[in-house]
Amino acid sequence: MSALVGLDVSIRERLRGIVGAEHYSDAAEDLYCASYDATLEQARPEAVVYPASADEISRILRLANEAGFAVTPRGSGTGLSGASIPVAGGVVLILTRLNRLLEINADDLYAIAEPGVITQTLADAVAKQGLLYPPDPGSMKSSTLGGNVAMNAGGLRGLKYGVTADYVMGLEVVLPTGEIIRTGAYPVKSVSGYDMTRLMVGSEGTLGVFTKMVMKLVPRPEHCESMLAVFADMAAAAETVSAIIRAGVIPATLEFLDNVTINCVEDFKHVGLPRSAEAILLIETDGVREAAQREAEKIVAICHGHRAAEVRRAADAAERDRIWEARRAALSALSRVRPTTILEDATVPRSRIPEMVAGVRKIAATYNLQIGIFGHAGDGNLHPTIQTDQRDTEEMARVEKAVDEIFALALSLQGTITGEHGVGLVKAKYLKDEFGEEGVRAMRAIKRALDPNNVLNPGKMFR
Amino acid sequence: MAPKTLTAADLGPKETDQAYLCAKCGMCLQVCPTYQLTGREAMCPRGRVQLLRGLLESRLELTDNLRDMIYTCCGCNACYVNCPSGVDVEKLINEARAAMRAKGVELPAGQEAMRSRLADVSNPFGLDRAERAAWLPPELRKPRTAETCLFMGCSISFANNKTGKTILRILEKAGVDFMLLGEEEECCGDPLVRIGETQLAEAMIERNQARFRRYGVRRIVTPCAGCVKSFRRHYGGFESRHLVEWIADLIDEGQIKPRKPVGRKVIYFDGCDMGRQLGIYEPPRRILRAIPGIELIEYDKSREFGQCCGGPLISYDPEMASAVSAQRVAEAAEKGAETIAAACPTCFLNLRSGGQASGQRIDVQDVMALLYRSLKGD
Ligand SMILES: Cc1cc2nc3c(=O)[nH]c(=O)nc-3n(C[C@H](O)[C@H](O)[C@H](O)COP(=O)(O)OP(=O)(O)OC[C@H]3O[C@@H](n4cnc5c(N)ncnc54)[C@H](O)[C@@H]3O)c2cc1C
Q1: 3-class secondary structure, A168
Q2: CATH T-level fold of A222-422
Q3: Domain boundaries, chain A
Q4: Which of A4, A101, A368, B142 has the CA that lies 20 to 30 A from A349?
């Protein structure tokens, strides 16, 4: 692979010509503002552009191949893996101007959106038509759909409804070499050719730039039931999770807060959680009213049968809101304790949650760090959240060691280094731990085939 | 030559910590009026806070462009209520502006013009001091000793005395006692604090306080949200209330009796100072609900999540300000409102110009004007 070059005056001129002068900038402030995401990583590009069409993006990528500069796509920059950070300089492609919601089809249950549409905007628009777009990442009020597809974002509804990948029916993609292709199809069934859609989903902006996305929708469930169960020990909570699944109930959401998180939430919001509790489960069932209610009854019985100290079931919307208050406040509560918050997403099979929680506790003690754990118990996706201060280099060194151990622990429990946030920059060094040199080599071969000059989002995924 | 840096010592330890509290999560992007308008990261709270951090770490220079990004923040703090880490962006930005001014950084042209108008004639409109009280009945132009001062504020006095006269008529009907500073009134200082012009602001605040003391004032009532904010933050020894709080109580006590129906579908606009800063959500709604015939509706985002009208941008770039308010007017029209009711004079003026700019046929009224229609002929 050839080395990438910087942007000279004539390239800058041509970029301006493609997107229009007002949609190009190399002002220091705009470059700085494209240098970060929600991690602690940072690197500045040499120019930012705001393209308005697939054609413009195609021309930019052809120019990049010709001249040899890097191009990094960016949505809202809410990523938690550094995937949008332009480590090789070059151009950042900000996709927020491509923000039209082109179609909502209630008969064939899909929506067509441009990548800059905000996730919440799509969810609200389809809700008005009695439909549901299920993926609900915690960042949905600000993340773009393009970013969600590129990171295969998951959310609270993952357990029952799956993740973004399960809702992408087809894409329009500008390949790294500039060709514009279409993947997937509109019908529910389609088996023609390689499944390029699945390959593109979760590719972290390294295999193509999405310019149109066909997203699957489902009917809106008519009813939901919310419950909260308090446990004095972790094992009982974990057994409860397994028992619920074994009983044939798949809740829409099944969330978990540990003791550290419970206490931070109480300090911050005083929602009335018992401070001594080791774990709290927040559970929701949805669907046809009677079915959701019957499932809720089953769950309440299972919680009681597994030594829950207390079980609450919301009688109305206001109570439901109160139950969810604790979960909504979790990240805020954890973020306020110290200046810097590092949110990890190591994920294990749900039956191994107690081992994972115990292991993280041990790591926290070893390195003398405060780590709260909350997350999606239903799918084993935990968020060990480290509370620290990035200005304290001595503590940050301990944080780094703890993070290494958390990933090793997840892998030793048949888990994965990332359940939601992606590999990007910050987890690239761990990828081979999960898939071995051969596994990573196979991935690199795909990258090389589609991006021979390595211009699209170089430096990500692989180390 | 303008200084090229801003250091942690310039900003102070508390505000520096605030800048570091930002987790860069981006939850503030979509609620920021200037980001909604421009789609530019440098024009959203996360971007502004990061630019400050870049300055503190000497990774950026204090260019005119960077200064302008800091000066385009409306201070609406919609970001604050959406911030998981609780960064008080309005305060941080105001402190950063003050730190820049203290280092001799020049203001952007529009804000410099406003500063010099305030320094010259004590009002942001640059109008002759004499006009402040010229529209008042002669007996109210000069202050007298009284417990309650009705502080009119610059917007009403210079740009909207029609509402001012309405207020006086309503209070007359209520038969309550109050005085005005009249000719002696000066800007409350808020517009100066907002642009980091601390010294000039402090001098004005001190002069107004001396007047309140001279005339034995214990309670200040004002129809201006910015003034109430200023009194509560920077003035000591006086009780201060927004006029709607007083009027809502007078209605409850039966001293004001709205009777005549005003058949309109009204949406109440929570201004940022009224709402997020002062927490005055109910009193204006109580007044509107007391008026027969009014059907009161709500924005999708209201109360603490209410969105800014863009008013604070007027001095920086009036077109930008009315582009923001045009969006608020369009949202009101989408909700089917016939009238937008405001209780903040800046929101009122800016929503009007936004309405005109967007060509929406929607009427913008002060809450007091709607109330007065229901009292007329009584
Ligand atoms: C508070 C908070 C909560 C979060 N909660 C969740 C959660 O619950 N679940 C979850 O999965 N994630 C979560 N995230 C992470 C993040 O929001 C997601 O990864 C999201 O999908 C990123 O979207 P974005 O628009 O910000 O993308 P960016 O961060 O801008 O970009 C992410 C990646 O996508 C690429 N990209 C962007 N647009 C395109 C495009 N059109 N074509 C090709 N590549 C593109 C970029 O190159 C980059 O590699 C959270 C983040 C925060 C800060």
Answers
A1: strand
A2: Vanillyl-alcohol Oxidase; Chain A, domain 3 (3.40.462)
A3: 101-219, 222-422
A4: A368
Atom of ligand 1 at shortest range from CA of A73: 47
Identify which of A77, A336, A390 has the shortest CB distance to residue B85. Answer: A336
Q: What angle do CA B251, B255, B261 make, to 5 degrees?
A: 55
CA-based nearest residue to B334, from B304, B356, B360: B360
Question: For residue B6, which amino acid is it?
Answer: L
Tell whether ligand 1 has an atom less than 6 A from the beta carbon of residue A73: yes
- A91: Cβ below 6 Å to ligand 1? no
Closest CA to A285 of A223, A225, A219: A225
Domains of chain B: 8-102 (1.10.1060.10), 109-249 (3.40.50), 257-375 (3.40.50.11810)
3-state secondary structure A277-297: CCEEEEEEEEECHHHHHHHHH
Using CB atoms within 10 Å of the CB of residue A42, give its burial: 0 to 12 exposed, 13 to 18 middle, 19+ buried.
middle
Q: How many cross-chain Cβ pairs, A to B, lie less than 8 Å apart?
A: 86
**Listed residue (A217, A218, A221, A219) closest to A110, CA to CA:** A217
Q: Are A279 and A191 in contact (CB under 8 A)?
A: no
| Tokens of residue A433, six digits | 């731990």
A118–B30 CB contact, under 8 Å: yes
Q: Name the minimum distance, in Å, from the CA of A138 to any CA of chain B.
A: 10
Give the distance (Å) from ligand 1 centre to CA of residue A78. Answer: 5
| Residue owning the nearest CA to atom 14 of ligand 1 | A139
Query: Could you read off the pLDDT tens digit of each residue along chain B, which spans 378 residues?
Result: 566 899 999 999 999 999 999 999 999 999 999 999 999 999 999 999 999 999 999 999 999 999 999 999 999 999 999 999 999 999 999 999 999 999 999 999 999 999 999 999 999 999 999 999 999 999 999 999 999 999 999 999 999 999 999 999 999 999 999 999 999 999 999 999 999 999 999 999 999 999 999 999 999 999 999 999 999 999 999 999 999 999 999 999 999 999 999 999 999 999 999 999 999 999 999 999 999 999 999 999 999 999 999 999 999 999 999 999 999 999 999 999 999 999 999 999 999 998 888 888 899 999 999 999 999 866
Q: Which residues of A touch B17 (CB under 8 A)?
A: 339
Domain A101-219 has CATH 1.20.1050.10: no
Cβ of A313 less than 6 Å from ligand 1: no
A243, A305 contact by CB (below 8 A):
yes
CB-based burial, A180-189: b 16+ in 10 Å, e otherwise = beebbeeeee
Give the span between the Cα atoms of A386 and A369, in whole angstroms: 7
- By residue count, chain A amounts to 463
| Ligand 1 near A138 CB (within 6 A) | yes
Distance of CA B220 to the CA centre of its chain: 17
Nearest to A158 by CA among A134, A142, A175: A134
Interface test with B, best of A23, A25, A33, A332 (most B CBs within 10 A): A33
Chain A interface, mutation test: which of B28, B29, B57, most A Cβ atoms within 10 Å?
A: B29
Could you please report the per-residue DSSP string of B16-39? HHHHHH-----TTGGG-HHHHHH-
- Residue in chain B nearest A76 by alpha carbon: B26
Please report, for residues A238, A363, B73, the alpha-carbon distance to residue A232 in angstroms, rounded to integers and kept in the order given.
Answer: 12, 22, 47
What pLDDT digit, counting tens, does each position of A289-306 carry? 999 999 999 999 999 999
CA A148 to ligand 1: nearest atom: 21
Is the C-beta atom of A87 inside 6 A of ligand 1? no
Residue A221: count of CB within 10 angstroms of its CB: 18
Which among B289, B287, B305, B308 has a CA at the least distance from the CA of B351?
B308
